[in-house]
């Protein structure tokens, strides 16, 4: 069972997942490109369904699946205990890492990716995320659900087969608390609705735009070709969003990733879905960050949290939409 430990310097929780421990040699090999070990079966390929725990959901035409959700075999968060914080002396604060850790298999095709999903399939991937968020929201002990897709070794993927993860955790993480504070600080109606209006008006950083979804390279991009996918209809929680808008975001992500690949190349990236915490009060507008891993974080960024972006977002969006 994993443990949460509080970093008293930052006030942020760290998860120590000892069962996932790797020997030093394995840590070094994580630097190498993702490739299946020869002879090792891929647990996410059709026909190998027994290699994963029994599925929680599956989506696809009768009897077959296009998208599956299964429990993670090595969960970083597990169990239904509420967050019980223990103080061991003045500086050691810990808690059990209870919660949910699930895998979202995005396609039966081992060599595919979100960039290649057709409209219907991209919609199914989003429907799966929406359904799991709804399930997590019903659990009293899950405060926030982070959905992610890591593509490529530089982005942290450990298996080649296209997949995402859903982590239901027992606290509101620092990153989300900061974004919530940003929404609260903004004196207008909604921060992201206002950003959409302003970006459409400026028209320097718009990558894709239809009546349901907007993709921009944000004004404040911290990484080259960083993109933000925003549903045009204001909604606080992903799971409360109308199906047509949820599906449109799936297509928007697909189109943005396809542009990234055709204009920049087949780079590693992270998709980060940000929605308001469950049982939440206050302003928010859910959205998806696309963060290409074209550069790595160096000491300055690590030490200060201040990003240095060597490609201006205006330049990036012009290149992507040219
Ligand atoms: Zn596979
Ligand atoms: Zn809004
Ligand atoms: Zn965000």
How would you describe what is shown here?
The longest helix has 21 residues, at 243-263. The protein has helices at residues 24-29, 119-137, 174-185, 191-202, 243-263, 299-304, 313-321; strands spanning 3-7, 12-16, 57-59, 67-71, 86-88, 92-96, 100-105, 144-151, 163-169, 206-209, 213-216, 227-231, 269-274, 287-292. With 322 residues, it is α+β, with helices and mostly antiparallel strands. The mean pLDDT is 93. 26% of the residues lie in helices and 22% in strands. The strands form two sheets. It has a ten-stranded antiparallel β-sheet, with helices on both faces. It has a four-stranded antiparallel β-sheet with strand order 2-1-6-5, with no helix packed on it. A hairpin with a 4-residue loop joins strand 1 and strand 2 (12-16). The protein is globular, with a radius of gyration of 20 Å. One zinc ion (ZN) binds at residues 42, 44-45, 110, 161.
Offer a concise description of the structure.
Helices cover about 25% and strands about 20% of the residues. The protein is of the alpha+beta class and about 325 residues long.
């Amino acid at each position: 069972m994993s443990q949460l430990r509080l970093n008293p310097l930052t006030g942020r929780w760290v998860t120590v997942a000892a069962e996932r421990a790797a020997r030093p040699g394995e840590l070094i090999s994580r630097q190498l490109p993702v490739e299946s070990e020869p002879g090792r079966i891929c647990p996410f390929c059709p026909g190998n369904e027994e290699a994963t725990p029994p599925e929680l959901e599956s989506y696809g035409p009768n009897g077959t699946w296009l998208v599956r959700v299964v429990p993670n075999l090595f969960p970083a968060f597990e169990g239904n205990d509420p967050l019980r914080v223990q103080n061991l002396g003045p500086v050691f604060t810990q808690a059990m890492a209870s919660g949910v850790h699930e895998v979202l298999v995005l396609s039966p095709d081992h060599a595919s990716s979100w960039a290649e999903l057709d409209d219907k399939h991209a919609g199914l991937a989003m429907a799966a995320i929406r359904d799991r968020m709804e399930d997590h929201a019903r659990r009293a002990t899950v405060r926030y659900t982070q959905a992610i897709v890591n593509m490529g070794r530089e982005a942290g993927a450990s298996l080649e087969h296209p997949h995402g993860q859903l982590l239901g955790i027992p606290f509101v993480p620092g990153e989300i608390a900061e974004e919530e504070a940003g929404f609260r600080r903004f004196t207008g109606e909604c921060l992201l609705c206002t950003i959409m209006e302003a970006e459409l008006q400026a028209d320097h950083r718009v990558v894709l735009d239809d009546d349901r979804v907007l993709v921009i390279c944000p004004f404040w991009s911290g990484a080259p070709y960083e993109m933000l996918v925003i549903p045009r209809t204001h909604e606080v929680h992903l799971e409360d969003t109308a199906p047509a808008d949820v599906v449109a975001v799936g297509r928007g992500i697909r189109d943005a990733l396809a542009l990234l690949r055709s204009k920049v190349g087949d780079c590693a990236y992270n998709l980060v879905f940000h929605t308001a915490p469950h049982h939440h009060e206050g302003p928010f507008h859910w959205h998806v960050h696309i963060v290409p891993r074209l550069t790595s974080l160096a000491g300055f960024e690590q030490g200060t949290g201040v990003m240095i972006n060597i490609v201006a977002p205006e330049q990036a969006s012009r290149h992507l939409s040219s």
